[in-house]
Amino acid sequence: MKKLLPLVAVGILVLSGFGAVALKCDIEKQDFDSSDHEQIGDGPRDYTHTVLVEVGSTSTCPACPASNIAWHTIYDGGNYNFEYCEMVVNKNSVANAHMHNDYNIYWVPTSYFDGGEYVYPGTNYGVFYNYLDSSGSRVVPDLVADLDVEWLGNAEIDISLSIENNEAVAYPGHLRVYVTELESTLWNDQQGNPFYHAFLDFAFNQAINIPAEDTYSDSTVWDGAAAGYPGISGSNIQVILAVFDDTPHQSYSDPPSGAPFWAYYVDETVMARIPNNPPVAPDIDGQTSGTAGEEYEYTFFTTDPENDAISYYVDWGDDTNSGWTDFVASETEIALTHTWDEEGTYTIRAKAKDICDAESDWGTLTVTMPVNQPSTNQQILKTIFQRSMSFKQNIFRSLLTS
After folding, report:
1. Residue 232: phi, psi to the nearest 5?
2. Which one, of 109, 75, 83, 82, lies nearest residue 95 by Cα?
3. DSSP states along 33-94
4. Average pLDDT of the residues of the chain
5. Is 70 exceeded by the pLDDT of residue 396?
6. Where exactly does CATH 2.60.40.10 map onto the chain?
7. What is the DSSP letter of 11?
8. Predicted local confidence at residue 356, as pLDDT
9. Is the pLDDT of residue 308 over 60?
10. Architecture of 283-376 per CATH?
């Protein structure tokens, strides 16, 4: 491994605001073209539990993009039973405190499997697969967790959970509930890719003790605006619940023996996402009568229940349409213009879709174009005729008064 001096200098400046030491960037344990890149199997592994992976990263680390893309690729492949989150320590003070205080993080990127049962600085697909399988085969207590999340609007999420202990003895441990963005709208890696599964905040981070054959339940409303994230959208949020045991295990963030910390293994992990709802049918505002051949402007407005960006589609009622517009923020009014070439009554129909392609019902507005706009030649002839008639009338009046 190699110390990257320019990165460390930046790290000192950025991380010092969080009261942390600078991190070293790993540039040796990279395996981008390994034959192990191909995932093994046709479906999720039969693990004893869902594995949790926490990845320590920074936005300035040259080696972090490989790790960011690798974990995103493995997760989307669906062949390994795990959840993960990117802890962007130079951008997120909560992530920074957790990774330093609980893991004594030394290198970036570093992946921590099940609370530090396995630790790997760098990016290597084969190692990732092996550690996932190894953590997933560990014998764990019989815990069954359930997690429900509901979007309340205004960046608020109602989070309810329960953890059933089916053992004959009490289970003391630690509960963490991670709020993450599936694709970060806030932070990119050093190559400009958004961080995937980027950690935002803990909704729960506390010790628990579940009596034998009993259930622990709790709920909270997580306020994204209060946490500093007012612009998040519900369909881009994933919440992860993880239960850590209370038995300390010696582990190292700079393997094999550097940067020691006490690891507490994860015995249960579940994930929940907010159900997506379509936008509300758009409101249409503009003139309801006019002249055929003239251009008119109409505005369109709607909201999305999860605050997702939206696109509009307008059918003008004359066999023409706008196509899908570019996406705009929820509750953003857009204006479009249209000209009806022939007189008649037309029904403007508009619908919206969110970034998950959920489409709203149609909003409508009826307009009438009663009179054709005369052509240019017709207008010229009409003007000449009117002026000629006015000239003749003036001469006639002059003769009568002379």
Report:
1. -70, 155
2. 109
3. T-GGGSPPSSS----SS-EEEEEEE-TT-TTHHHHHHHHHHHHHHT-S-EEEEEEETTT-HH
4. 88
5. no
6. 5-273, 283-376
7. H
8. 84
9. yes
10. Sandwich (2.60)
| Nearest CA among 88, 181, 77 for reference residue 129 | 77
The band of 334, judged by pLDDT with boundaries at 50, 70 and 90, is very high
Model confidence at 398, pLDDT cuts 50, 70, 90, reads low
Helix (H, G, I), strand (E, B) or coil at 398: helix
CA 350 to chain centroid, in Å, comes to 26
State how far the Cα of 258 lies from the Cα of 26, in Å rounded to an integer. Answer: 14
Query: Model confidence over 196-222: pLDDT tens digits?
Result: 999 999 999 999 999 999 999 999 999
Q: 81-112: buried (b, 16+ CB within 10 Å) or exposed (e) per residue?
A: bbbbbbbbbbbbbbbbebbbebbbbbbbbbbb
Work out whether strand 194-210 and strand 249-254 pair parallel, antiparallel, or are unpaired: unpaired
The residue type of 251 is: S
What is the side-by-side order of every strand in the sheet holding 310-315? 289-292, 363-372, 344-354, 310-315
Q: Which residues contact 44 (CB under 8 A, 6 or more apart)?
A: 78, 79, 80, 81
Provide φ and ψ at 365, rounded to 5°. Answer: -150, 130
Quick one: fold of 5-273? Immunoglobulin-like (2.60.40)
Q: Residues 6 or more apart from 261 whose CB is under 8 A from it?
A: 102, 103, 104, 116, 251, 252, 253
Joined tokens for residue 197: 């599964």
